[in-house]
Amino acid sequence: MNLPSYISIQAVVMLILFGTSVSYLLGRRKTKRPFLMALVGGVLAVMPPLFVIYLVLFLLKKDLPSAAAAANIDEPKP
Fold it and tell me: Of 27, 47, 50, 78, which is most buried with the most CB atoms under 10 A?
């Protein structure tokens, strides 16, 4: 069963787009450098086992504090 080369190229391009978009969306919430995380995710998307490990580690990372949460920090009362 031979697949035409354009199908495999399309699959790789879709993997890269998926990895980049998921990494960017997670990077916005979890880091201060979402573009760098999107680049790393796009590169690792070509190697699915490494991409899955990257996503699991990325999901386990704590979220950045949001601006609303930082503004509502309770100060100690005397």
Answer: 27
Whether 19 contacts 41, CB under 8 Å: yes
Average pLDDT over residues 3-31: 89
User: Domain residues for 13?
Assistant: 5-62
Report how many domains make up the chain: 1
Query: Which residue type does 26 have?
Result: L
Could you tell me the sign of the dihedral formed by the alpha carbons of 22, 26, 32, 37, in that order?
A: negative
pLDDT tens digits, 31-49: 999 999 999 999 999 999 9
